[in-house]
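Hello again,

I reread your note about wanting to compare the complex against the isolated chains. To keep things tidy I'm splitting this into two emails, and this first one only covers the full assembly. Below are the input lines as submitted, including protein chains and any nucleic acid or small-molecule components. They are followed by the predicted structure of everything together. The single-chain runs will come separately.
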Amino acid sequence: MTIQTVSQNKSHGGMQGVYKHASRETRTDMTFSVFVPPHGKDAKLPVVFYLSGLTCTHANVTEKGEYRRACSELGLVFVAPDTSPRGADVPGDPKNAYDFGLGAGFYVDATEPPFAKNYRMWSYVTDELPKLVAEHFPVDPSRQSVLGHSMGGHGALTVALRNRDRYRAASAFAPIVAPSQVPWGIKALGGYLGDEKQAWRKHDTVALIEDGARFPEFLVDYGDADQFLNEQLRPELLKTACEKANIPLTLRRQSGYDHSYYFISTFMGDHLHWHATRLKS
Amino acid sequence: MTIQTVSQNKSHGGMQGVYKHASRETRTDMTFSVFVPPHGKDAKLPVVFYLSGLTCTHANVTEKGEYRRACSELGLVFVAPDTSPRGADVPGDPKNAYDFGLGAGFYVDATEPPFAKNYRMWSYVTDELPKLVAEHFPVDPSRQSVLGHSMGGHGALTVALRNRDRYRAASAFAPIVAPSQVPWGIKALGGYLGDEKQAWRKHDTVALIEDGARFPEFLVDYGDADQFLNEQLRPELLKTACEKANIPLTLRRQSGYDHSYYFISTFMGDHLHWHATRLKS
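Full-complex prediction:
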């Protein structure tokens, strides 16, 4: 698998790159960013995959996430994929809404036409991209973790729960935890997976836990000034599910913070330290 | 003087705001950002003014500068103005070039028509904006400093040299140090100030020092992979001028870094610590 370098900029002692490749899964070109911290020759570093939220590309967290300083201190590679396939031939939301289609892949493999052909973000982020990264960057595939924001927090938690042996840590900023029960999720899972709600459960963190999926522990931050908190995010549903399943959950309500990267960047360092501890143990 | 709040987002324990006001100097609305770190009631904090480079608005450094963590730790207010007046009635570059007119005010008060009416960025950043900030935010006007990038580094150094008593520290990332001698500066100073080169000298750091202006010390970082280094920035001219004038200059060549915010954000913390030491002494 070949990749094309879009840009490289030295930063915080490491190299922030943006790369493009022809994806087997999405049948489109996909762009992603990778930060490689300073490291010794022949080093194989732990790698954190960051899944972004609605409307984002790789660029939002790359520009505004403030992760490079911590990654350089901790020796972590940081990978940020796009949130959907893109291109003139890729179908989007019929009304060009922000919460479905382009920029809103929801980290599922769609089964419904016309989305099934390109919208394969589950396989992309869990299989194709990790292999591509392992092939081209100095990472240790046995030490990977995942975090995400909002729709990407949903992605991170579901990816971890269904791949317990492949991710050593998982955390989220303001995640959607029960897409089957909230408007964003109902629209997206219905559109990509069809009306049969049983098929949605493996893409719903709370449902996965109810159905027996487990992960060693989670760290979740949300802001109490988040405009999406009560309708779309509903962290209390995750709290209840984790309590019933005895999954240790560090759930932090951050006073005065909203849904933006001003919130994410504030706690990014905390999350990366938390990941590093688990990636290096 | 009244200001209008465009947005406020809690970040790193403080408040990142964007504000708008009708400027007396530019006769346009001007937008600027202010970060206020966590502070006690009735506190009056030191304030750092950041002057941006060509093509930028307040938004570039606000989103990509990674200054909030250090400002919160150090108790610094951080103010970022726009780089020119803007609006349908504001004249720009006749060919819409990026290096003159809109986004390229060069921190001068223009004397040439049609720019003299609106392009008054010198008076805006040295007088109107500091007063506005002192009126609306918890700052101590006796403890202010200035830093900037590229065109804004030029702004920071000239502002400091001509107002030695008002700024306690001045530093720059990849500044233009001798605009009278480089293409960007020759175009801008000629366009705003006319062909008489004597009038340019008070907006040229190297010329100001040659003409006797002094400042206690400067910190300047530049990247040796900066594409503008040899033609537009020419830090060696600043080094020579400071040596002749016995101005202590900490001039750091940063290996592998370019002209972007990936460079700036790497060394922003260093600069803010340097400013804080001098603002609090």
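For quick reference: Chain B has a mean pLDDT of 98.

B.
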